[in-house]
């Protein structure tokens, strides 16, 4: 008997994971839009978020939480971080006791600065909560290119069962029990992708991008370990892996935001023109607060924040970083 999976969120990553998972499980996806639901059911496509892609024929879609979640053995949350809590609360009355809930989101909730698994634990205590993360640009995965991801759960036995649901041919899924580290790696790298995008947009060069990625890894490891993540996790798929993929790819939405800023566009203009989420824009605010709270210097994130919210120019940001004292590689800064 196949496991029943309910997945909430019909955007590019939610749809991709639903289609991949449909090879191994009986999957129903929830989307807000009736049009998207009909398109998935009738044509096996989602042209708004995955133009040109054909989805697994067994994947079903619905706008009803009852239909998607009511019988589910596993719930997957594929909505962006700032809507995660509300969608989870809307689905809550239909969720069966103690089923595992897996987040796909890579961001922190504004105001609370919470990770998505913390929100799951707060709203649905007792449900095992985990995250699927790693270097996984949706559009590449859809075109059948190989990728690796990591499922992070405190309970490794449940993680093994979930690994079997997500693993499919060229999509290889590893396990990790460090949920905090895996979740923070995915959220923090988006800010670094905005930084490298800015450099690329301003034609700063390959050496600058490499320096930002490397010092970015050091920065996110510092905050991540201060918050309880394991150092080793940040050298893995959820840390360095995702950082490299996102910071060097024009397919990344966060890199795109940075690139356009580097070309001189305003943030409002860029967001206006996008129909997809770039989580790093909002996560940057939460990270500045966490940097103060944990007393961890985050120089690259701070310059990104200054450009996004304080009116600094890309030139000011690079000047600010270059003028910093360059200490030992082992030290902050
Ligand atoms: N696209 C990618 O390559 C990857 C994305 N992710 C993460 O997955 C999460 C979801 O991202 P995507 O699917 O890429 O986003 P997307 O921008 O492609 O789609 C967003 C989805 O959220 C829905 N949505 C927006 N506001 C909502 C609300 N108020 N209530 C309910 N639904 C709402 C939209 O209708 C849409 O279905 C993000 O946290 C992202 O960082 C993770 C790995 C890869
Ligand atoms: O997380 C991602 C790849 O692993 C997707 O990155 P973007 O949200 O920047 O497109």
TrEMBL record:
Active site feature: 189 (proton acceptor)
Residue positions annotated to bind sn-glycerol 3-phosphate are 106, 134, 189, 242, 252-254
What reactions does this protein catalyze? Answer: sn-glycerol 3-phosphate + NAD(+) = dihydroxyacetone phosphate + NADH + H(+); sn-glycerol 3-phosphate + NADP(+) = dihydroxyacetone phosphate + NADPH + H(+)
Cell location: Cytoplasm
Q: Which InterPro entries match?
A: 6-PGluconate_DH-like_C_sf, 6PGD_dom2, G3P_DH_NAD-dep, G3P_DH_NAD-dep_C, G3P_DH_NAD-dep_N, NAD(P)-bd_dom_sf
Residues that, per the record, bind NAD(+): 9-14, 138, 253
Write out the entry's keywords from A to Z: Cytoplasm, Lipid biosynthesis, Lipid metabolism, NAD, NADP, Nucleotide-binding, Oxidoreductase, Phospholipid biosynthesis, Phospholipid metabolism
Q: Cross-referenced PROSITE patterns, in alphabetical order? A: NAD_G3PDH
So what EC number does this one have? 1.1.1.94
Q: Which residues form the Glycerol-3-phosphate dehydrogenase NAD-dependent N-terminal domain?
A: 4-155
**The Glycerol-3-phosphate dehydrogenase NAD-dependent C-terminal domain, residue ranges:** 178-318
Query: Which of this chain's residues are annotated to bind NADPH?
Result: 12-13, 32, 49, 106, 138, 253, 277, 279
Top-rank taxon: Bacteria
- The kind of enzyme this is, by top-level EC class, is oxidoreductase
**A GO molecular function for this record?**
NAD binding
Sum up the protein's function in the record's words: Catalyzes the reduction of the glycolytic intermediate dihydroxyacetone phosphate (DHAP) to sn-glycerol 3-phosphate (G3P), the key precursor for phospholipid synthesis.
- This chain's protein is named Glycerol-3-phosphate dehydrogenase [NAD(P)+]
């Amino acid at each position: 008997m196949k496991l029943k999976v309910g997945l909430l969120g019909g955007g590019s990553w939610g749809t991709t994971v639903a289609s991949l998972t449909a090879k191994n499980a009986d999957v129903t996806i929830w989307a807000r839009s009736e049009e998207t639901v009909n398109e998935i059911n009738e044509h096996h496509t989602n042209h708004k978020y995955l133009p040109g892609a054909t989805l697994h024929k067994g994947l079903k879609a619905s706008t009803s939480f009852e239909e998607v979640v009511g019988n589910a053995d596993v719930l997957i949350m594929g909505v962006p971080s700032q809507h995660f809590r509300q969608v989870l609360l809307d689905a809550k009355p239909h969720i069966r006791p103690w089923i595992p809930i897996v987040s796909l989101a890579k961001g922190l909730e504004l105001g609370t600065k919470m990770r998505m698994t913390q929100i799951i634990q707060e709203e649905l205590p007792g449900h095992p909560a985990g995250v699927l993360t790693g270097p996984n640009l949706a559009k590449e995965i859809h075109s059948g290119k190989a990728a690796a991801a990591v499922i992070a759960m405190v309970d490794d036995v449940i993680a093994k069962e979930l690994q079997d649901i997500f693993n499919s041919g060229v999509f290889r899924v590893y396990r990790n029990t460090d949920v905090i580290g895996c979740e923070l790696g995915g959220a923090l790298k988006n800010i670094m992708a905005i930084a490298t995008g800015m450099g690329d947009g301003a034609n700063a060069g390959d050496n600058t991008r490499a320096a930002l990625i490397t010092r970015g890894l050091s920065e996110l490891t510092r905050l991540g370990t201060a918050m309880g993540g394991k150092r080793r996790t940040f050298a893995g798929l959820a840390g360095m892996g995702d950082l490299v993929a996102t910071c060097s790819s024009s397919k990344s939405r966060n890199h795109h935001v940075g690139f356009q800023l580097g070309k001189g566009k305003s943030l409002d203009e860029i967001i206006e023109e996008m129909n997809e989420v770039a989580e790093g824009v909002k996560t940057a605010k939460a990270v500045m607060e966490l940097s103060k709270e944990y007393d961890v210097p985050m120089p690259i994130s701070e310059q990104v924040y200054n450009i996004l919210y304080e009116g600094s120019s890309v030139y000011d940001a690079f000047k600010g970083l270059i003028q910093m004292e360059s200490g030992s590689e082992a030290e902050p800064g």
